[in-house]
Amino acid sequence: MMSSRVAAEKGAAEQAPALTKPQKAAAILVAMGKPSASKLLKFFKQEELKALIEAARMLSTIPQNQLEAIVAEFEAEFTEGVGLLDSGDTMDTLLSEALSPEEVNALMASPESKQEETAKDQPVWPQVAKLPPERLSEFLNREHPQTAALILSNLPSQAAAEALLKLDKELRTDVIRRMMGITAIPEAAVHIAETQIRARLLADNAPKDNAAGQQRVANVLNELDKSRLDEVMQDLESSGAAGLDAVRARLFSFEDIGMLDQKARVKLFDGLSTELVTLALRNATATLAEAVLSSVSARSRRMIESELGMQADGIAAVDILRARRTIASTAIRLAGEGALQLPSTRQDEAA
Fold it and tell me: Does 308 reside within a domain?
């Protein structure tokens, strides 16, 4: 008889694509919210943080019922002592017991693989004809002349002519000669060519919207303190991770306030309480403190400076960090609303 836990997992699995354990961990952290998630992030090892970041980039929107199933699974595994970042053997066993092989295969299919299956159903040649001539000729220049001749013979005359003009002169002559000699093309040869074009040409040209994943990664990284954030970004750059410029444009920490222009700083601190600003400025550098104090009213500045001049026994470092993250989160929100520009965004526009 199937246990209630396995039955529950089967029901959730039938409704949504399977997630990896790092993806589930990332989903739970996002659902917990910033205060709770930030307390947990500092306990992760460096490689675990990288795994979470990569997992978060691949997440799509998670329905409420699937999120509830993930949380329920986490609670059950936590009781048994199984970590979310352990091997997938336990999950594989549960799936094999609860589902048929066909259901497991359908469940484990990633969004990318489903997109590939959809692409296979679409005719190849109309898609190739829409490519820029430069892109197509770049591909053909690396192919055997007979392959290039076969491809161009299947394209509309105008698209084939534009691509021919972009080919190397020596190759162009050879390709035209071979096109003249082509009679009936074996169906097997056409099928092989179509398969290679899908895999090597159209796949590279397909647009990919990674904005949601990039924002998700930025949300996670913005919970780290400045030193850990810089360390993780440096590791990601060394690994050659794609899309880092877009992620960097969404990053902002309290220490970056000095990089905002005066108008943006005034907008940021307008409406923030003096208590919050005072707490955030505890142990701040003189340069950073001046950047903040020059952005508030004269009355607020006198109050903050008076508080900072008093002994601050009993103030926990975590409370200071939380105040700084609140201000940084406010800056990110205002940037999203178009009220100000983050330093990284201005630098990208200037470049």
Answer: yes
